[in-house]
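Quick note —
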Amino acid sequence: MKIILKTEDEIELMRRANQLVGKTLGELARHIKPGITTLQLDKIADEFIRDNGAVPTFKGFPNPYGGPFPASICTSVNDVVVHGVPDDKTILKDGDIISVDCGTLLDGFCGDSCYTFCVGEVSDEVKELLRTTKEALYLGIENAVAGKHLGDISSAVQEHCEAHGYGIVRELTGHGIGREMHEDPQVPNYGRRGNGVMLKAGMCIAIEPMVTMGSRAIYMMPDRWTIRTRDGRPAAHFEHTLAVRKGKAEILSSFDEVETIEGKQY
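Predicted structure written out below.
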């Protein structure tokens, strides 16, 4: 395992890349409504990222199981946990949820964040899943401070979600991030407090709870990308990139633009 600590200058560059991800998600929030296809959303994101001087890190990302990722964002609808591939056949409808995972490469450093959106009016049961998953993300972030361990982050996420009766996907994790989108260490969403690598100031990681309404069992579709829940029930996914600090983590990505748009819509 090789964990690369970032300098203050490098963290500033990462903030810029991650703020652009937040702005891209905000731009998509204006368009996520019944009737739009996931491929249309992908085109909006691709154009927005490139117009802002960056490139989408997901496009062409290698897959050990198959071909490179063909799009600029992942669009995971309802029971798709992660890595949903945008296409012109998936048309969003009222009551859906869609997790949009987005990555940018700007000035040599990566940004990465995900937000699960409501499409029109969704059920209270689904809203509770989303609320709990987002809460778990911030509980994990509260534990991402120098002197603690990776297991403190993981257990905070797991304990909160399982206390509400939800499943924690174990086959997929958060990760270190920097010049590469995926660096050491892996950041699981389950674990034991005090276990794992000790956190140091300058570590940059992406924490991303992937939470299911029912069973945590998942499977991969024939496209070798799309991951779905085995029981067909919905899943939520929220992600922030952050820098580990002494006392309190610094969140480098942002949901501000999305939440501003959501407030206007709802």
